[in-house]
## 1
Amino acid sequence: DLEIAIKVVIVGNGAVGKSSMIQRYCKGTFTKEYKKTIGVDFLERQITTGGEEVRLMLWDTAGQEEFDAITKAYYRGAQACVVAFSTTDRDSFSAVRKWKKKVEDECGSIPMVLVQNKIDLIDQATVKPDEVESLAREMRMRLYRTSVKEDLNVEQVFNFLVERYLAI
Ligand code: GDP
Ligand code: MG
């Protein structure tokens, strides 16, 4: 039978925790300083859902997002997307619409999810829960609050994307 492989892109401002999320989900580890392994475009993880074997390929950037210089190759063929921002970085929240539009311009309409990461730092929050919720509602995106550090809700994000993808 055919194996299902899904290319997932993770977008958002620098330092919101994208690389950490990929590392957490695929390797089960968390570090203070994650550096993309040179020469590796993505990490993968295989899961079984509803009897289907699914291979998720999580594509990382090498920090190009900070210079608004993500290449077309990064987006090419993406089938699902995480738009991430940080609880402690208001600019990253303000950039969410821009990131969503970028992905839609490059990939069309693909399953997407909104992720508020670093929820463990809620004491230092620069965004209010209700403004996050209204943005999610307005953009018609499912919202997950995650802590990659504490391993909170990370699996749920990718399970949701897989379910959405398989439902198409
Ligand atoms: P990227 O630029 O979006 O890829 O972000 P990184 O994955 O490099 O993470 C930036 C910094 O945030 C690193 O020091 C991470 O250890 C830290 N970080 C990532 N996720 C979390 C989290 O959930 N909570 C906390 N407290 N720190 C996090
Ligand atoms: Mg990174």
## 2
Amino acid sequence: MGSVPRLYNFAANVLENNLRGGRAGKPAYIDVRGATTYGQLAERVARFGAALRGLGVRREERVLMAMLDTVDWPTAFLGCLKAGIIAVPVNTLLTEDDYRYMLADSRARCLVVSEALFPKFEKIIAESPDLEHVIVAGDNPHGYRLFDDLIGAVEAEDVTAPTTADDIAFWLYTSGSTGAPKGAVHVHGSLKLTADLYGTPVAGVTESDVVHSVAKLFFAYGLGNGMTFPLTAGATVVLNADRPTPDGVAALLRRHPITMFFAVPTFYAGFLASANAPTKSEVQIRRCVSAGEALPEGIARAWAERYGVEISDGLGTTEMLHIFLTNRPGATKYGTTGKAVPGYELRLVGEDGNEVPQGEMGELQVRGPTSAIMYWNNREKSRSTFMGEWTRSGDKYIQDDDGYYICCGRGDDMLKVSGIYVSPFEVESALASHPEVLEAAVVGWFDEQRLIKPKAFVVLKMPDKATEELIGSLQEHVKQKLAPYKYPRWIEFRIELPKTATGKIQRFKLRAEGMM
Ligand code: 3SK
């Protein structure tokens, strides 16, 4: 099982291993600008770390990364880690308000932003008192420094910080049903351990693989798929900076000999439905993984029939960094999330805090060496999530007679939409800010593929204003206020919402209507 030396720097270690393994000339990444070899990656990472140090960014200070998936992403992330600086990669689909919060909460001294995302930061840079340096990845510096110029201007000196395995390496923000996003704080050793426990032995990433992850690098899922596992194995990664559409990914699969494919159920479903999807003979995929939300059996079977490859459905959390529960090729039980990844222990806990008997539903809790050490600056949520050796997942599961775990949804009101958490409260308050809306309740609803999407039940101030046109304008209103993926796919007008005697909305009653 995995172990990490006491003195350990993930970035320095993984890059040195590849150079020592004779892979200096082998492509590590292929992006829209071409291939970057392991040798070039090691040099870029060293230069970026040295450049940050040269700017005066010190060990343990934070660098917020709002970056699209190009080779600049791993360069910046690994450059921070090598220099002992903390990388804070963030979701690129968020709003200005979200980023304002994250800059303030992390007190980032440096921002690295892709040119295409710069407009969302333009105004808030000046409002972030701790931010001293802005680096723009792309061609237009917008009055700041260009990423390429910065790394071109320094020597690739060795800035490796003598970190320990338990030193903080990076944070990943995750949203809860209420309150602001929480920064899950991860250490250097956890990256190695996710590869040693899951990436290499279970997902099976090898040196000969060409890997593509539809999930972007800023997700915990994408970070493992597109960086930790392939770099640990010495594989090659194909990156896609664009929004992942079935057509775009089909083109990548035709252009590159991709052997390992990581995606989320919504993507698998959309790809299967696409007229342009490649045939089995056009692709070289040998392994497929799904996570983010439970994979419906119909999608898994249709994929296996079309491509002759089972999709291994797994569950991870941002808090545990990667997958700890999964199906495996040859032992897949469709409709379940499989069994624990060796190195992790699972238990199902009831409302009373005791483990439930086999066959009964409980909250899934996990014990393993890759859990985050805390949520930054949030003692209350840290204490209730990281309970000593056990970490709460917030997901409800039952274990069947064969020991396979079956997902029964969330234990709170959160929705997972295409693998990303959406808080119903946030969508409700966006709806309630529309002048025609009195109140709203948002719940998860199955679409025709049995994948969860947000549905809103809306009470209007004047019920006779309910029209199809208003539905469209409410959806647009939410898209303007929040990250667009959070908008309600369906809106139903109601005269009133089900409530308790104390006026609390009974979302479970609305949810139950969708199950009928
Ligand atoms: O959503 C998941 O299942 C997942 C998988 C791997 C890493 C992180 C997450 C949230």
